[in-house]
Amino acid sequence: MTPPLRRGLSALAALAALTTMATAHSAAADAPAGTVTDRSPAASAFGVAGAATVDRITYWTRDSSDRPALSSALIFLPQGTPPPGGRAIVAWDHGTMGVAGKCAPSAMGLADDHYPELFSRWLADGYAVVATDYIGLGTPGPHAYLDGHAEANATVDSVRAARAVEPGLSARWAVVGHSQGGQAAMFTAIDATRYAPELDYRGGAAYAPGASAVDLMTLLGRPGLPKVLPPDMNAYAAYALLGLQAARPDFDLDSYLTPFGRDIIERARQLCLDDLIAESADVNVSDMLARPLDEGDFPALAHPVMDIPTSGYDRPLLIAQGAVDADVPAPMVWNLEAQLVGQGTRVEMRNYPGDDHETLLATAAPDVDGFLAQLLR
Q1: What is the radius of gyration, based on Cα positions, of the chain?
Q2: Phi-psi region for residue 179, left (φ > 0), alpha (ψ -120 to 50) or beta?
C-alpha cells in the first residue's frame, strides 16, 4: 500500500501537471488564428496525382461565437519551384462526410471520387491546394455541421496556417467548395476580406451549395408527414440537427425528438455519411420528431447559423448547379440566385441540365478552372 504522504505528494504532482497542461492549452488558445500547432507528412497522397508533397496540419481558428477552436487541414503542393511571388492558393471546402472525428477527410480520405481529380487539375495549373477538415473533424470537440461562419473561419485560417509553414505560398487565394462545402465557400466569400485583410482574397466558386436547408427542414420536419425524402436527405437532416446543437448549445434538441429520433441522432453522432445513409434508408424523418421544427427555437437559432447570406460579397462569385441534383435540389439554388440578384449581388450562375450532385463536379470543372485562372493570374 502506498504511504499516505507519498499518495499526497503524487496527487499534488498530478494536480500540478494538469494545471500546467491547462495553462499551456489556455496560452495556446490565445495564439492568433492560423497559428499551427502540428505539422506532419500525410500518410498518402489521397489519390491526388501530381502532388509533390501532402502534409497534415493542425491550427487554431475561431468558432462562430468567436471562441478559440482547433481545426486541421491537408496541404497539397505541386511539382517544381514556386514562381516569383509564390504559388496562389485554392482553399477547398469539402462536402458532407459526417460529424464524428473519424469522418475527417485527412483521416478517412477525400471520399468523393471527383475530388482528387479537381485537386490534380489545380496542381497542374500551379496552385497549392489547402483542404480544411473544419472544426471538430480530426480535432477535439463537436463538428458544427452547416455552421457557416465557423466553416468560413476554419477555411480562412487554413490559408493563414499553410502560409505560415510554406514560405513558397502567395497571399493570393480563392475558395471552392461542394455541397456542404459550397455553403461553406459562400460564407467564406462573405467573411474573407474582413476576417483576414492581410491576405489577398480574389473570389469564390460553389458547386451545388447547400441552400435553404432550414426552410426545407421546417417545411418537411413535422410529425405525420409521409416519407418523401431520399435516404441522403435523412442523413443530412440528422447531421443538421446535431450541427445546430453544436453551434448553439442552448438549442433543446431533445425536446423535438421521439425516442426513435434520439436513437437515430445517436447513430448520426457516430457514423460517417455512407454508413448513416445505409442505416437510415427506410427512416421517415417525421417519425423522428415529437413536434414540428417550425415551433420553438429551431427556426430562430438555425437561420442565422445555416442560411447562406444574400448580400455583402465583395469579390467575384460563381455558382454551378446540376438540374437533376437530388441532394441539393436545383430550385433551392435557383431561389438563392434570385435572392442574390435581388440584393444587388453580382453572381455568375452556371446551370448544367443533365447533371446530378456528383457528375456536376466533372462537367463544371473546366468552367470553374477558367474562373480561377481569371481570379488568380
Answers
A1: 21
A2: left
